[in-house]
Amino acid sequence: MQIIEIKENKKQYLPLLLLADEQKDMIDRYLENGTMYVSDDDGIKGECVVTDEGNGILEIKNIATIPECHGKGYGRILIDYVADRYKGQYSALQVGTGDSPLTIPFYEKCGFVRHHVVKNFFTDNYDHPIFEGGVQLKDMIYLRKEL
Predict the structure, then answer these.
(1) DSSP conformation class of 90
(2) Over 90: is that where the pLDDT of 101 sits?
(3) Would you tell me which CATH number, out of the four given (3.40.630.30, 1.10.10.10, 3.20.20.10, 1.20.1420.20), belongs to the domain 2-146?
């Protein structure tokens, strides 16, 4: 498997990006300024977009794997790659996600711990209600991992 940095034509991965962030204009807010990586294992299996948030914080803005590859370690491989790639350049890697029983445990297994909450992020910033695992997402839960 290879992890490849995508520098041009990032929108070609829009179907994959939309799996993790279902509103295109929200993706447009970070895609061009972010650094994008894809995992290629006999075809693209996943992607990750990270941004420099200042003060030594690197943030995962989008991470997704194709549905057929869920639970096979591709997301964790991307997180480990990013953490190793930026260790020494940043003090922490953070991710913001909804308070979902599907995503929070995944990030905790990857070594992230809850850091802070942005109240009503999803209800204030998305043009439709978002549900995950049968739960409506309202607040953005930020988790951090020291690098």
Answers:
(1) B
(2) no
(3) 3.40.630.30
